[in-house]
Write a structure and sequence with these properties.
203 residues; alpha/beta; Rossmann fold; 7-stranded mixed sheet; two-stranded antiparallel ribbon; 28% strand; disordered N terminus
Length: 203
């Protein structure tokens, strides 16, 4: 019980540090059009978070903490949302003696060379256990594309992780589809970006 509380406190501190490091860079207010086509009064520019060395390392460590009790063969997601996180998680997993293979899923198969849809160290065995990551979840479309590509190869998604949940329906749909979903950061209507799941999830 005591150990669990200590780990929770450490995780909360790490998430708060991530927010501190990217505050003013990644969280922007104004008039924006999202990739889904929806309009928004705020925008989470995740690439500003994922190109700060300390923040990226902390995010990778947080993902590995989430996965510590889950049997995983590989981690990946749709490029470009997962392209910065995935190799960093793989690197940190090796440094921490818990190596996890990494891959990215293209938006569409490339038309030259190997013509792959999935690039990188994707498991060849059927039934391999896969973690899907994404930088931001709004509608969940990117996660669904990555999930479909993985499942078409006969592998199983055992966990879905997002850097930020906008709480606009995507994470709820992911859970309704039967997937275990966790977000590192959350959008709260009043507080902006938080580390705890907000009571009010509409934005």
């Amino acid at each position: 019980m005591y150990t669990h509380l200590m780990e929770h406190d450490m995780g909360t501190a790490r998430r708060k540090k991530i927010i501190e490091l990217v505050k003013g860079d990644a969280y922007l207010e104004g008039d924006f059009v999202l990739s889904s086509g929806a309009k928004s009064k705020y925008y989470w520019d995740s690439k500003m978070a994922l190109t700060k060395p300390e923040a990226l390392c902390l995010i990778a460590d947080e993902i590995l903490e989430i996965l510590k009790d889950i049997d995983v063969d590989a981690i990946g997601g749709l490029t470009i949302g997962a392209a910065l996180m995935v190799p960093t998680v793989a690197l940190r997993s090796y440094q921490l003696h818990r190596p996890i293979q990494a891959f990215v899923v293209r938006d569409r198969s490339k038309e030259h060379g190997t013509k792959k849809l999935i690039e990188g160290q994707f498991p060849k065995k059927k039934g391999a256990k896969i973690v899907i990551v994404d930088d931001v979840v709004t509608t969940g479309g990117s996660i669904r594309k990555a999930r479909d590509a993985v499942e078409e190869q006969g592998c199983r998604v055992v966990k879905v992780i997002a850097l930020l949940d906008r709480h606009e329906g995507g994470s709820e749909d992911i859970r309704r589809d039967g997937f275990d979903f966790t977000a590192i950061l959350h959008r709260d209507l009043i507080k902006g970006i938080t580390v705890e799941e907000p009571l009010t999830v509409t934005v």
